[in-house]
Amino acid sequence: MQITLQQIGKKATLLVVSLSVLLTGIATAGLKKADAREEYVANSPAFIDTNGHWAAKEIGIATKKGLIKGFPDGTFKPEQTVTQEQFLSLIERVIPSFTGNEPDSFIKETYLPAAAGRWSEKTYHHLASAGIMPSGKPTDSMTRLEAARTLLAAIGHQSEGEKYRGTTTKFFTDLSVENEAQVITVYPAYKMGILAGFPDGSFRPDDKINRAQAVVLLNRLESKIDELYPGNVTESEKKAMTQAVSSFVGDVMDKQKIRRFDDLVAYVKKNNLPVSESFLREHFSFMQYEVYDYVRFPQFNELMYFAKIGMNKYRMTVQYYAGDLGGSVDRTFYLSSSDGKTFRLIGKDE
């Protein structure tokens, strides 16, 4: 559960991948599709300035899918730098749709004002509940480091960075292991195949991303989502899984207001609830301490991914904003079901 918005606002940078104005061209106010996106013509997958370009195939694939568009003059301008709001808009097009919730006062005061009145305002507002927000101004260039952070959030895998906290292994010549904020972002993004290094052994975290590179990352994001969340999970199963977890969390945390682990275990046993003790330990271990602060649970209307990972076993990942204390967080729940209708909440290794 890493790379918090709190860190971004106070020290680090949480990035986001968006690509709209330039990947879509010139502003077209009042466009209904996103109300907040700029889009423009050129439906043909062939652009007059991409023939022979190293990313021509990737650009063609993304264009045919309707994810990107070119300019009125038939060009794509593959070497043109991408801004944060543009990259953010691209990500919004690839990730699953979600309703989202109203950003809290901290988010409104800290991260949304910069986009107020811009074409990207609704995109910023929408992705805020998923904890996907850029660190700088909407018109700032998107860098490789920020792209890595945002992409990890977009696939619900920011917590992968915890594996590298405190590591002494040096992956890149230009990235010090002393810079933990960069390590826990770059290392997982690299190991997961989201962003690669350069032949000279560098990562170049501050390099700006151009339109061609952004398209490659967009296609890679789409492929990575399919890889990380396998299995055919039906809409009814998704709804039942979400209901099973959200109703349990809401019951014990909000309705029953249980705050001690022993009381939680006793409550589950007394009411014969379909929840294993392993599940409780994975998600409510903070209750075992006399004094604690806990990262709040999602509202379950944020960015969600579902996967079927075995015989009658499912996985549900929620990427969300957990308040000033938690920041941007991804939380994964495991469930089992024999009929796809009723679900039991279980531990990861059950």
TrEMBL record:
Instruction: Answer yes or no on keyword Signal.
Output: yes
- Domain (SLH): give its ranges: 42-105, 168-232
> What start and end residues bound the annotated signal peptide?
1-29
Q: Name one Pfam family in it.
A: SLH
Classification via PROSITE patterns? SLH
InterPro entries associated with the record: Cell_Envelope_Struct_Comp (IPR051465), SLH_dom (IPR001119)
List UniProt keywords, sorted A-Z: Signal
Q: Which PANTHER family match?
A: OUTER MEMBRANE PROTEIN ALPHA-RELATED, S-LAYER PROTEIN _ PEPTIDOGLYCAN ENDO-BETA-N-ACETYLGLUCOSAMINIDASE
What name appears for this protein in its UniProt entry? S-layer protein
